[in-house]
Specification:
Blueprint (H helix, E strand, L loop, with lengths): L1 H7 L13 H4 L40 E6 L2 H14 L9 H9 L8 H10 L5 E6 H6 L1 H12 L5 H10 L2 H5 L36 H14 L14
Parallel strand pairs: 1-2
Length: about 240
């Protein structure tokens, strides 16, 4: 989303213009630094965040700002988060996936539990000018997603520009572009010898990590926790 937003709002010809770092153009709302101030950024001010609803600045609720909430099926989120724990030096390294899965289900992770995060944002959606976007739908058809975003944001894009944004925002191309990922950011908090910041980005990788018992347990919890949140979830790309 950082990369897509950066390109949607870029002025000039995308074919010839040099792109800035995605995390400089669209900085993290919860991170502060001298290079990334939030108050004096020129309009439009673009931010990305993992913050749960209860920590979001109240000013966002005036519906003047536009919010795109990207959600991903929680089984793949758990797997991704497990590998990120091994990659990020500031997080405790899990003993194994089974142990981490219990931690994940208990909500003992940064930014609250996945269930609470999605549930709270969805059930307070009336407070925001917001659209919900499935990560899996972006994987299935990124061009459709980019068009939805530009329409929601009121940005008119010609076909050539849309095609360029889609090409530059595929997982493969972002993974090889240091301006679109965090490989060369130089943070000592990341252990690049363990894994890469962008690992797979696929749909259904959870099937290579979950046991049958873990999957059945997860399904029971998911059904109970999310029964009143009618968002569409895709567990495998074949869905």
């Amino acid at each position: 989303m950082q990369n897509i937003m950066k390109h949607i709002y870029m002025d000039g010809d995308l074919q010839t213009e040099e792109c800035e770092l995605s995390y400089s153009v669209v900085p993290w709302l919860e991170f502060t630094s001298k290079e990334s101030k939030t108050d004096d950024r020129p309009s439009p001010r673009l931010f990305v965040t993992h913050l749960p609803y209860q920590l979001i600045p109240k000013a966002l609720k005036n519906k003047k700002a536009k919010v795109i909430y990207v959600y991903r099926n929680p089984k793949d989120v758990a797997v991704s988060y497990y590998h990120f724990h091994k990659f990020a030096n500031y997080l405790e390294t899990p003993e194994n996936f089974g142990a981490f899965l219990q931690t994940f289900l208990n909500g003992q992770v940064d930014y609250d539990s996945w269930f609470n995060h999605v549930w709270n944002w969805y059930n307070h959606r009336h407070e925001f000018n917001i659209m919900f976007q499935s990560y899996e739908e972006m994987i299935k058809d990124l061009r459709v997603a980019v068009l939805k975003f530009s329409n929601f944001l009121g940005r008119s894009l010609d076909n050539k520009r849309v095609d360029t944004i889609v090409e530059r925002s595929t997982f493969k191309n972002m993974k090889s572009n240091p301006k679109s990922n965090y490989e060369n950011v130089g943070f000592p908090i990341f252990n690049n010898s363990v894994a890469r910041f962008m690992r797979k980005g696929t749909v259904g990788d959870w099937k290579h990590h979950f046991t049958v018992a873990e999957n059945e347990m997860f399904d029971r919890i998911f059904e109970e926790e999310m029964k009143n949140v009618p968002l569409k979830y895709t567990w495998e790309i074949s869905d």
